[in-house]
Amino acid sequence: MNIESGTPVSTIVMTIDVVNESDAPGRILVDMQRILISAVGFSAELQVVSSSRTKTAFQLIFKPDAEIMVLLQNIVASLDKLERKNNIETRLLVHSGLVFSQQDSNKLVYVGSALRTLQSCLQSAEPRKLRLVTQAFARTSQPWTGANFCIRKSHGQLMPFEFSQSLQKDKTTDKNSVSLSPAQLNEIGSRLAQYLGPLATALVADFARQSSTALSLVRNLGGEIGDPKERRRFEEDMQYFLDGWSKP
Q1: How far is 17 from 32, CA to CA, in rounded Å?
Q2: What is the separation, in whole angstroms, between the first and last Cα of the chain?
Q3: CB-count burial class (<10 Å; 0-12, 13-18, 19+) for 178
Q4: Residue 19: which residues within 8 A CB-CB, separation 6 or more?
Q5: I want to staple 211 with a disulfide (CB 3.0 to 4.6 A). Which of 88, 117, 216, 222 is the partner?
Q6: Residue 74 near residue 29 (C-beta atoms within 8 A)
Q7: Residue 11's closest CA among 53, 50, 55, 59?
Q8: Of 84, 111, 19, 82, whose CA–CA distance to 56 is shortest?
């Protein structure tokens, strides 16, 4: 993928790993790499990365003009066959954001946020065994400003689950508008995570700045839960805790 040094390109990045890798023989990772290359062809760049000393993951950086939905459906179908054959469980981590060419190496570096619209679209279009885990960044990709921007990396590589982004922020938006303690916000985030996974923490922080009351915060967060029954269960659960917190 030819990207001019320092020039941001908007695209999509996917990280794929095996959840129970310790039980999987090395040949499975070789098969997975072959499958991914076959599924995406020349539409994405494949990198091998590690999320820990013992954990291997594959990262696909898609070309901006790639047919993303078609490619993701091909990947899901191919991984599904691999799972059934080898009794393993794979995990997909999808991001939307910006890719940069690192000046001092040939590595591509990436920063972005969870693409929840794609998650919803895939979950409605794909049957059965699609597991899509979103990274807890902002609710939407922040625009490139050309200033006050940095990327922190671990061990000189782009690491799944360890991306970080720093943009100049408006100090007026950093204040928590809801009169809840950090511990109470953490409790809300913990319960929301049961429905939205790791994205919950970012959502709570974001909506806490926008919501005027604790009740409106819960309602706004509940609106992010797609299933009506799960949304109602979350709101009722949080109403119980809000009532308890309001008692002297």
Answers
A1: 9
A2: 60
A3: buried
A4: 88, 89, 90, 91
A5: 216
A6: no
A7: 59
A8: 19
Torsion, Cα 37 40 45 47, to 10 degrees, reads -40
Domain 9-166 has CATH 3.40.30.10: no
Which residues are within 8 A (CB) of 167 and not within 5 positions of it... i.e. 6 or more apart? 142, 145, 148, 149
Distance, CA of 200 to CA of 192 (rounded, Å) = 6
Taking only the tens place, the pLDDT of each residue in 95-133 is 655 554 444 555 555 444 433 333 443 444 333 333 333
11: nearest Cα among 63, 59, 60, 54: 63
Do strands 165-166 and 150-151 pair parallel, antiparallel, or not at all (unpaired)? antiparallel
* pLDDT tens-digit series, residues 146-182: 332 233 322 233 333 223 332 223 333 344 456 778 8
What is the CA angle 17-64-10, rounded to 5?
A: 85
b/e sequence 190-203, b meaning 16+ C-beta within 10 Å: ebbbebbbbbbbbb
- According to the model, what pLDDT value does residue 226 have? 72
124 CB neighbour count, 10 Å cutoff: 8
- Residue 222: count of CB within 10 angstroms of its CB: 20
Q: How far is CA 248 from CA 84, 179, 243, 244, in A?
A: 55, 15, 10, 9
Amino acid 216 reads: S
